[in-house]
Amino acid sequence: MLSFLTLETAMDRDELVFLYQLKEGICQSSYAANIATLAGLPTSLVQRAVEVSEYYRTGKPIKRIDKASSDEQAKRCQSVVEKFLSLELEDKDLDLQGFMKDELLPSAGELLNRS
Questions:
Q1: What's the pLDDT at 65?
Q2: Rounded distance, CA 32 to CA 24, Å?
Q3: Cβ neighbours of residue 34 under 8 Å, at least 6 residues apart?
């Protein structure tokens, strides 16, 4: 009642060719890197994706390559935590929502935009 199907492909020299024909079986490898290259993604990005995929497949740790950005991110997070810890939470006039809006959300937005 269940069968595995995949698309037929062929290699023409170094180029992957999709034949758009179903065949029985499962895909033995991912063609994501080939498709990303065909879609025009930068070569360095595709190479990094292949590298990360291989690390994941073999169970090796995946190391970040944006160390400077990680250090900057840690400093921003530390700054937000320090500002939060300096708040007088017992103060009835404390505008915690204002703090969240003014301090936390902009910092989170900057971090997300850098990712």
A1: 78
A2: 20
A3: 16
Write the Ramachandran bin of 20: left for phi over 0, alpha for psi from -120 to 50, otherwise beta.
left
Dump pLDDT digits (tens) for 37-46.
888 888 988 9
Query: Residue 46 phi/psi, 5° resolution?
Result: -65, -45
Tell me which amino acid residue 89 is: L
Q: How far is CA 85 from CA 80, 82, 90, 110, in A?
A: 9, 5, 12, 21
Residue 87 CA, distance from chain mean position: 34
**How far is it between the farthest Cα atoms of the chain?**
73
Alpha-helical regions (H) of the chain = 32-38, 43-58, 67-85, 96-99, 105-114
